[in-house]
Specification:
The complex is a heterodimer of chains A (129) and B (502). Helix content of chain A is 45%, strand content 21%. A five-stranded parallel β-sheet of chain A has the order 2-1-3-4-5, sandwiched between helices. The longest helix of chain A is centred in the C-terminal third of the chain and has 23 residues. Chain B is an alpha+beta fold and 502 residues long. Chain B is built from 13 helices and 17 strands. In chain B, the strands form four sheets. Chain B has a five-stranded antiparallel β-sheet. A five-stranded antiparallel β-sheet of chain B has the order 7-6-10-9-8, sandwiched between helices. Chain B is rod-shaped, with a radius of gyration of 56 Å. The chains are: A alpha/beta (129), B alpha+beta (502). At the A-B interface, helix 1 and helix 4 of A face helix 9, helix 10 and helix 11 of B.
Chain lengths: 129, 502
């Protein structure tokens, strides 16, 4: 079962880099949004396994606020990507499982995704099997 | 012989002689008395003469000038001091009337005539007056006159005597003092909120017009500590307390506070003052200034704001630079996705170099110091970043980095060199995957010394002659730092960069 990843990141080239790298490592990127609001609005129809959320976004809300709103409709785990500067000021929402400082190593991120989804994906796999 | 007649004649003769004798005796005693009287009188005269001589001496020697006029108001006495003060000799003025020579100051003639009239008419027997006179050479004197008039029973003037004190020096000093005071007051008026003087207990005795006008209180109110009422409520208690303390200790007074002006605004004022002491060191006054520092404060706030804005901007720029470098790194990643293994590796190495630069900007905006970064923080972050990038968690990293501050132009070349050296160790030193790398950075008297040592298989012969980009970068950047690199082997590879610390 390939992890289905939603990327919310305002810098599209970086998003494309993450998408390409993750797909090489065996993930499926379901969508990329540059605004938190769009991610919240389209979340249910995409139904990803995990969200990579940048803290600084194009729209009017920050990554943490978008995580909070998604948390209201789903228990999907969210990994917050943040510049060093935000790390201390970020208020960690319950559904944020990790805060990963940028720049990050893509293998580390991939490992973190698999680790986070270990318990979620396997039972699903078993049920399907 | 007619005895009887002879005897009677003799008797008569005796009688006559006896009478004559008595008369002579009387005459004699009269003469004696006269002589005695004459002697006594002579003695008295002598005494009077002596007294007179003494008096004359003292009058002539008096430190006050002694001047006397006779019944006809002609000068009959002109003492030594009079000669000294006015410059005319006695023989030049005796016998003259008051207006016979020019010694009364023109504008004061009226006043002098009035005094003379009062004295001659007997309206006043004693009269003090102060007026100006001229000396013989025409200069002006300030004199005090103590005048006495003597009038006989019939009401006729006998004499007027005056004692004269020359007070010119004192008068000029007073004048100079009052001019100097006027001068200081004027200076005080040119300063907004001006100058102030208090008594030793701190009670205001003088405040510049400019102060009273600007805060709208009277001198009386100011003396009754009314200045405390026009202070900003937040400053009032602190200031009054500090002032009491200052007045007690005699320290330099230096405080910033705000006064409410008649314009309704609070004005920041810098007050400064010093105790004024008498020759025994006792405080007799406090004197100081109030300086309106509104403009200074405004400028200070403006500079502060502008500085903050610029810091935000600088921060923004470093952030932007970092993001752009990250963007470049992502572009290289995207590029490498469709490339063969060799290109992929080259692009990955480039990403490592970009990371070395981007980390400098990240640390700069994060620490709010926009020109320098601390070596320990940078090298540590960079080292861990490189390990993570190559996914070599088994390699141990040790840092011995002194707390040295590096500017941008030094930090970036150092960072790239460290990146090359560590990357080299990670890629080639540990064929079995584990090992350790030690990074040290020290300052000696002249140089900064960066050393990277691993415990791997060591550098191959002629390593530094290799024409790889890594070696080229290391050598190029070392010479950019005016430094040199030494390649060697100890336990494993040990490479040392040495460059002058400026």
């Amino acid at each position: 079962m390939k992890p289905r990843v939603l990327i919310v990141e305002d810098e599209l080239i970086i998003a494309q880099d993450i998408k390409g790298s993750l797909e090489l490592l065996g993930c499926t990127v379901v969508a990329i949004f540059v605004k938190g609001e769009d991610a919240v609005k389209n979340f249910s129809s995409l139904n990803p396994d995990i969200v990579l959320m940048d803290q600084n976004l194009k729209g009017s809300i920050k990554g943490t606020e978008a995580a909070n709103r998604i948390g209201a409709i789903s228990d999907v785990p969210i990994i917050l990507l943040s510049a060093y500067i935000d790390r201390n000021s970020v208020e960690k929402e319950k559904n944020i499982v990790a805060i990963v400082p940028k720049p990050f190593n893509i293998d580390d991120l991939h490992r973190l995704i698999l680790e986070t989804l270990k318990d979620r994906l396997q039972p699903l796999g078993k049920m399907q099997a | 012989v007619d005895n009887s007649s002879t005897s009677s004649e003799a008797e008569k003769k005796i009688e006559a002689l006896q009478k004559e004798n008595a008369d002579l005796n009387l005459e004699l005693s009269r003469i004696k008395d006269a002589i005695l009287d004459a002697r006594r009188a002579a003695k008295e005269d002598e005494h009077m003469y002596e007294l007179n001589q003494k008096l004359e001496y003292h009058v002539n020697n008096s430190p006050l000038a002694v001047i006397e006029w006779g019944p006809d108001l002609r000068l009959i006495r002109w003492s030594g001091e009079a000669e000294h003060i006015f410059g005319w000799k006695a023989e030049e003025v005796l016998g003259k009337k008051m207006d016979d020579f020019p010694w009364i100051y023109k504008e004061d003639i009226g006043q002098v005539e009035e005094v003379t009239k009062d004295l001659t008419s007997g309206t006043e027997m004693k009269r003090f007056s102060e007026n100006r006179n001229y000396t013989k050479d025409g200069s002006v004197l300030y004199c005090q006159w103590y005048n006495s008039s003597l009038i006989d029973k019939s009401g006729k003037l006998q004499s007027i005597m005056s004692l004269v004190l020359d007070i010119t020096k004192r008068k000029l000093n007073e004048q100079r003092l009052s001019e100097s005071e006027k001068l200081y007051r004027t200076i005080g008026e040119t300063i907004d909120y001006g100058i102030w003087i208090t008594d030793p207990d701190g009670r205001n005795v003088y405040a510049s017009e400019s102060f009273l006008r600007l805060v709208g209180i009277t001198q009386q109110e100011c003396s009754d500590f009314g200045w405390g009422d026009v202070l900003h409520p937040d400053d009032s208690e602190r200031t009054i307390e500090a002032w009491k303390q200052c007045a007690k200790t005699g320290n330099f007074w230096d405080i910033e506070h705000r006064y409410k002006g008649v314009d309704g605004q609070y004005h920041p004022i810098l007050a400064r003052g010093l105790p004024v002491r008498d020759e025994k060191g006792k405080i007799i006054y406090w004197a100081g200034i109030n300086l309106d520092i509104s403009n200074l404060k405004k400028a200070e706030a403006q500079i502060k704001k502008s500085l903050e804005e610029k810091e935000v901007l600088l921060k923004e720029i470093h952030h932007r630079v970092k993001n752009n470098l990250q963007l470049i790194s992502s572009l290289l990643s995207l590029q490498s996705m469709n490339s063969d293994e060799k290109v992929k590796q080259s692009l990955n190495e480039s990403k490592g170099r970009i990371r070395s630069i981007s980390l400098v900007h990240e640390i700069l905006y994060e620490t709010n110091d926009f020109s320098n970064i601390e070596a320990p923080r940078y090298f540590n972050d960079l080292g861990r970043n490189i390990l993570a990038a190559y996914g070599r968690e088994k390699v141990k990293l040790a840092f011995h980095v002194e707390k040295i501050s590096l500017d941008l132009t030094t930090a970036i070349p150092c960072g790239i060199i460290l990146n090359e050296l560590m990357t080299n160790s990670i890629k080639y030193a540990f064929p079995h995957g584990d090992g350790s790398i030690t990074v040290s950075f020290k300052a000696d008297q002249l140089d900064h010394v960066l050393n990277v040592t691993d415990d791997g298989i060591g550098l191959p012969q002629g390593f530094d002659q290799k024409n790889t980009l890594g070696i080229k970068l290391i050598n190029t950047l070392a010479s950019q730092l005016s430094g040199s690199v030494k390649y060697g082997n100890e336990k494993g590879a040990s490479i040392t960069l040495r460059f002058p610390s400026k």
